[in-house]
Amino acid sequence: MTFQAPKGTFDWLPPRSEQVLAVREALVAPVRRAGYGYVETPVFEDTQLFARGVGESTDIVTKEMYTFPDKAGRSLTLRPEGTASVVRAVLQHGLHTGQLPVKLWYSGSQFRYERAQRGRYRHFWQVGAEALGAEDPALDAELIVLAARGFSSLGLRNVTLLLNSLGDGNCRPAYRAALQEFLRGLDLDDETRARVEINPLRVLDDKRPEVQARLGGAPLVADHLCAACKAYHEEVRALLTAAGVAFEDDPRLVRGLDYYTRTTFEFTHGGLGSQSAIGGGGRYDGLSEMLGGPPLPSVGWALGVDRTFLAMESEGLLGDAAPGRVQVYGVALGDDARRRMFLLVAELREAGVSADMAFGGKGLKGAMKGAGRSGARYALILGERDLAAQAVQVKDLTTAEQTEVPLARVVEVLKGKVQ
Ligand code: HAM
What PANTHER family does UniProt report for this protein, alphabetically (predicted)? Predict the structure, then answer.
């Protein structure tokens, strides 16, 4: 029996894995250019961090966490998202006592026990950016613009930005009560009724058509925003418009995590079917306090790398994944020549030329086949006679032209050719 990757997970293999790395780099390039610093947090955390941070009534916490006791009996959870960990790290190390906002970006695996389907995995990859410790609509707009730039730099066109405000501690309670009153009057199943009592906003996000059909006259948060939230939201909208970032107001956008206040947004892609969100985020002014910290108004997002890759595929943007792994490929015949080639390949790499060689004692034919597959432009052929003459044959694999170069000069010659 051979093993299979667990349900809901998959492997990234070359050459697609190289392409997904490039996608990840492109998505974070704009935030790095905007002065965000890299943060790496543990893949597992105290379970309570997510229970309190993400929210006890969310699907993520109630149904999807990979929670396990460690050998000392602590309850740990594989991170389902990055924001709670970043806030924990900022508070733990006192980063918020320095210059604000603290701007951080991250990249890594997330784990959610979801119903597995195309675009929805149990192990997936996000990049994220968080700006902590400032309440400023320009910061919300900056982050949204940076995410939009990441997507557009990849050539994606079929992306829609949905924008909403969820209000704050001032205006949300009254809205929540109005929504609850409306929802209590509907004919809903028991689980949804329970949700109406715990987190009525999440009911608006219910994807089932029979539930959506009943939500027609539901009160909208946009109609209940206090003056401060309304002004804040208008400023975010104006800044996005000025930056040339198109968006759609979506008064039903609530998102699946409980920590949001004011600005919320999601990027969706038209080529992905039901799992259309390629990124999302928003402001979370109360999260620090929920985790025992001081008030630390903050905003951030996470983008789904796997889904962005699928989105690119659906727009035909990935092209043929060229193997093109190395520039030079060594083919040596005979034991002495092989030893010399082993050193030569190392010298080439030191000199900044990417190089590989035939391994496994292949004959000339097999080794040349390897050279062809490696994507290399040049093959270096070293036989016993070449070695005796302290020379090597440099074959241009695109033209089949072959020249003899002294071994002492070949690194320099190839360096000149590949640059
Ligand atoms: P989220 O909306 O849960 O937000 O996830 C962000 C993105 O991760 C989604 O838009 C999607 O592209 C990707 N994603 C989520 N679940 C899966 C899955 N099961 N399979 C594949 N991709 C997935 C957050 O995680 C928040 N922490 C974002 C944030 C940062 N808010 C403020 N700061």
Answer: HISTIDINE--TRNA LIGASE, MITOCHONDRIAL-RELATED, HISTIDYL-TRNA SYNTHETASE
